Amino acid sequence: MDRQATIGFILIGLILMVWLYWSTPQTPPPGTKTGKDSLLVLDSIAKQGSKPKDAAKTAVEKGDTTTKTAAVSAKNPFTPDSLSEKRFTVENDLVIMEFSTKGGTLRKIYLKDYNNWFHDTIPASAPKTQRFVQLLDTARGSGLTLEFVDQPGRKVSTSDIIFNTTADKPSYTLKGKDSLVVEFMTTPDSNGAAIAFKYVIHGDKYELGLSVKMSNLNDVIARNQYQIAWRKGLNHVEQYIKDEANYSNASVMFGDEHVIFNSESGKEEQTGQVNWISVKNKYFTTALIPANPQLTEGYELSATNYQANADAVWKVYDASVRYKYTGEKEVVNNFMFYVGPADYKILKDYGGNLSEIVDFGSFFGIRFLVRPIAEFFLLPLFIFLYSFIPNYGIVIIIFSLIIKVILHPLTKNTYASMKKMQLLQPKIKELKEKFKDDPQKQQKETMALYSTYGINPAGGCLPMILQMPVFIALFGTFQTAIQLRGEGFIWWITDLSRPDVLFALPFTIPLFGVHEVSGLALLMGVTTFLQQKMTTTDPSQKALVYIMPVFLTILFMTFPSGLNLYYFMFNLFSIAQQYYVNNYGKQVELVPVPADKRKKGFMSRLTEAAEKSSQMQQHNKKRK
């Protein structure tokens, strides 16, 4: 959950507490990791890279052709001076991959099912790849690398090595069940020392099979350790970089624990079994899954950052999995290597808890309350509705109606409790007037009045608190559901994953950072105001009728239009429900509860405790 949303939920909680304070009599006071430094982390990670570019220029680069590269430093023990960089592409049903012999790994990957946010501004004559999301940051050189320290103490990274390759064509095309094996290998030195990468690419899958082979490195690797790392993060590919950065992180499945690292800088590391590592932005992810996790020795997650634009800092994440080297003549590590959408269903099908990469948020830091709601109910229901209603805008409207029906029992109790409190207000005013000079007596009699009519003064607030995990799960689901990305609805709502901007403001609203006006946020604010007017009759709460809608409207200006559409429709259904209750529902009456069936509520017990404490203090004073 980003900073604005966190501030929003905290303020909503404060408003609820103020509302509860105003709605109930007050009880008067009685009487009056930091792990050890990584061996293999390159010191230059944060120092390299080019100047920041704007979102459009960074997300799409001009097409490249095979380029000759000057030989790397003479210090590199694996690259002969005669080798130059070569690039080739592999296209399957889902992606277009560009491989490079420099590093022996992916240089670019275009996702064919996902367009850039500005794709409709690209000329028809432009290469098709310019319309697709390209995930790798070529300016900083993001990608996989093998790292270790050699005997002279140099830090060796395969990202600096130029490999030979078995690829003999500039491009390959795979379809359906086709597959292709591509190998990269260094030229063996006089002792036979060599490194090789083998990729198995499928025609209809995002993942690649990866095999990392090290031969005769016992006289090369020092300190008995090496690591496979994803370096230099991912490209930022969304219009709103700040929002995208808020949902970016590096993470690891460390045994049975999912560890998420989302700081702007620093690092975290542990020793133990690693089941997978991941680096993601808001909607897309990489994941490296060892075939034999029991051989792993630990992990490191780290971050640097740079100023992407005047308002946003982009976080660059690294993730590595460590191995122990014991001098074997030949070492082979196999992996599944995934680069693609952070789609819950796709990741779930791979097993191994990869679906944990999709983060649905938390309720005051408690994830186990929110995730099951989103994972096993909200998202499946959302996807099920789309299976026979091929418009996500309509799906959201029906979805909001279903959630409203499900929450009806709780909201019904809220309305009934609020109605009883309204009917009781004249009697409470009489008590305040009668005992205006004796606050403690006033409190006691008010609690007795609640008990007489079986009213819990917090009864209207409690159902709202119980609904909070559901609403937070909904917030997380709509914020991270890649299904909404690029999906339009009607009129000005062209992308349900982005704000539906009507116009830009000539200034920025402090604290919230809002400088654009969202149409659905305005509609949501209006319906919130109408709902408050229908449910609030206590004069002491009149200010909230105006404060809450204005506050929520500003807060929701930066939220995805799909989320605002949901809350707008939910408010409309709530207004309809309240209208029905007020005009056609069963009338609420104040009926005294028989004395033998009355229960003492928390406030009543608290008042009695305060009264006893006061009596005890007075008794002690008399003894003195």
Q: What are the key terms here?
A:
single chain; 13 helices; alpha+beta; elongated; six-stranded antiparallel beta sheet
Q: Could you name the ranges where pLDDT drops below 50 across 5 or more consecutive residues?
A: 16-74
Radius of gyration: 31 Å
| Total helical segments | 13
Structural class: alpha+beta
Shape: elongated
Number of E-state strands? 22
Strand order of the largest sheet: 7-9-10-11-20-17-16-13-14
Main beta sheet, described? 9 strands, antiparallel
Could you tell me the mean pLDDT? 81
Q: Give the strand content.
A: 25-35%
Folded structure, characterized:
The protein is α+β, with helices and mostly antiparallel strands and 624 residues long. It is built from 13 helices and 22 strands. It has helices spanning 3-23, 55-59, 241-246, 344-350, 367-386, 392-406, 408-434, 439-452, 462-480, 519-535, 542-556, 561-584, 602-623, and strands at 87-91, 95-100, 105-115, 132-134, 143-150, 155-157, 164-165, 171-173, 179-185, 194-202, 208-215, 221-231, 249-254, 257-261, 266-271, 274-280, 284-290, 296-307, 313-324, 330-341, 501-509, 514-518. It has a 9-stranded antiparallel sheet, with no helix packed on it. A hairpin with a 5-residue loop joins strand 10 and strand 11 (208-215). Helix 1 runs antiparallel to helix 11, helix 5 crosses helix 9 (462-480) and helix 6 packs across helix 12. The model is unreliable at 16-74 (pLDDT under 50).
